[in-house]
Amino acid sequence: MKKAISSICLCFLLAGPAFGASSKQDLQDRIDSAKTVMDQIMSASDRNIPLNILQQATCVAIVPGLIKGAFVFGGQYGQGVVTCRTGHGWSGPVFIRMAGGSFGFQIGGQSTDLVLVAVNDKGLQDLLKNKFKIGGDASAAAGPIGRAGQASTDWKMNAELLSYSRNKGLFAGIDLDGTSVSQNKEDTELYYGAPERFETVLKGDVEVPRGAEPFVRTVAQYFVEAKHK
Description:
Blueprint: H1 2-14, H2 24-42, H3 51-56, E1 59-86, E2 89-90, E3 94-118, H4 123-127, E4 132-133, E5 140-142, H5 146-150, H6 154-158, E6 161-167, E7 170-173, E8 180-183, H7 185-192, H8 198-202, H9 213-227
Parallel strand pairs: 5-6
Antiparallel strand pairs: 1-2, 1-3, 3-6, 3-8, 4-8, 6-7
């Protein structure tokens, strides 16, 4: 019963502009925001993603402004972009949705920038073939940060995805268990002007759109350069 009520309240909580149809400019703004989030996170030298994680990353998802809100029932919703490492650089982006809810006596709300880093061969390009749930279909852990994270090896054994959040300038790991991640086929088709398959785009078989080039270059700057250090 609680789950049913929670689902209903989550729909009301998250109803609004986030679920409206996107325009091409909305999608470009989302990609530009993802680039900004990546730059801001990596500019904090003592609190950024550790080098050894950057070196082994297979994909990265960035969700600018994940919406969290609560009034007795908690919920979250966000839209973001994913790019994956290929044999010749990083792929063009695809668009995703994230949604989840939790039951508890809470009042409040916040907006959080979210970064998900895939660190093994299963990667987001495989997970995104179907809708999946973090903590169920894919194991996730709050990612280590800064120099202290360099020495940590637990994440190699315990997680397929490492999660990071940035709220009001603070950057730390985040628990996303129960959050579902799914393809946003409509937005991806609109941005590319054709019904491109997620797998095809993320394998690098589709040319990076001109508007997404700065974002992809930014990811390459941090993730590809880390491979050579």
